[in-house]
Amino acid sequence: MKTLKYISLIVLGICFAQFAKAQFTLSGEFRPRTEINHGYKTLAAEDQDISTITTQRTRLNFGFTNEWIKTGLVLQDVRQWGNQAQLVQNQDYAVSIHQAWAEVFFTSEFSLKAGRQELVYDDHRIFGNVGWAQQARSHDLALFKYEKDFKLHFGIAHHENSNLTNSDYDGPDAYKDLQFIWFNNQWENAGLSLLFLNNGVPVNEANEQETKYSQTIGGRFTTSVESVKLASNIYYQSGKHASGRDISALNFLLEASVKSFTLGYEYLSGTDYDETDFKSFTPFYGTNHKFNGFMDYFYVGNHGGSVGLNDIYLKYKYTKDKFGFDAHLHYFGATAEIANDADKYLGTELDLAASWAIQPMAKISVGLSTLFAGDSMEILKGGDSSATQAWAYVMLSVTPDFIK
Fold it and tell me: Are 264 and 313 a contacting pair, CB within 8 Å?
């Protein structure tokens, strides 16, 4: 009996030691946001009513980590207040899976992460999680990772319908095939990332499906010179557009930051209204709300295949204790011809945002944006450029750690 007792204690000790090496986390997110709109994403007319909507993101985040594997599961519900009946049966409003992945480590440096997952690289320009949007963005793919002295990631995704007798895809995702390679290296005073993306879009032609591939190649470089932080992006796109046209497009960004101020310029090439080739740069799966104004007039489900953008901006950021404040000023212009004799000036946008950490797991954020639109914006968006264009929000974010 004593022997059995000792064996049991040894087994329990081993189990406890293994459990101690592992980590299990369970956290949540409750994020209702009210938005007041008179000119968000597109120009409002002078007699247009102001709309007020409230949306909410609710998440439950599970995580498990030990020395061999990592797993992540994020359950998510996104809704607009009033869209669901009080006496709901829930058939059409089921909780969805935002992330569900497992990462297996072959060695301490090399791993495979497979499943539904967010992709966030560099400054979010090509790949981002679109965290501002309540639904956010995630991908179904396999990601091979090597991380030691440098980082090298290779991602691959392929989508088909459930019909196993063909290789067609007409589903909701933006691509049928995707492959990318990302390289990153950090030095004491600089960082360099290189990205190659091969993006395949299914196109039905003559009762047959063909995949049109475009290629994006480029990267990001950051450094600092004494108190000045410098950052630059450059990406070039080629290949075939879904329409069959040849692609030749460019994105360039340069910004300098000194203390709380950032001055920058971003160029996204566009296609002239009477041009045959496709010269409009596509930022694909980036967090576009982060870049060209909070009112989302450009590249947030819109402006694709259009006249491009020149964005000259000045940003100010202030933080102290639990309080934060941001002010952004953007000057927008087209890079391509909008119409015959049309001015390329599109408008000037002012974005103001503030946040207050009420408690360690609770924060309230507010914002106000206004656009002083140019006449040419009417050609792109319709509406009335002389009307007041404004958008505001108030958002409560509560992120409890249930188990940590």
Answer: yes
Q: Which domains, ranges and CATH numbers included, belong to the chain? A: 26-403 (2.40.160.100)
Q: Decide: 167 and 160 in contact? Cβ < 8 Å.
A: yes
What does the block give as tokens for 94?
A: 């089921």
- Segment 338-360, tens digit of pLDDT: 999 999 999 999 999 999 999 99
Mark 9-44 as b/e (b = at least 16 C-beta within 10 Å).
eeeeeeeeeeeeeeeeeebebebbbbbebbbbeebb
- How many Cα neighbours within 13 Å face the side chain of 246? 4
Return left, alpha or beta for 276; rule: phi > 0 is left, psi -120 to 50 is alpha, else beta.
alpha
305 phi/psi in degrees, rounded to 5: 70, 20
Asked if the model's pLDDT at residue 9 lies above 70, the reply is: no
Cα(122)–Cα(230) distance, integer angstroms:
14
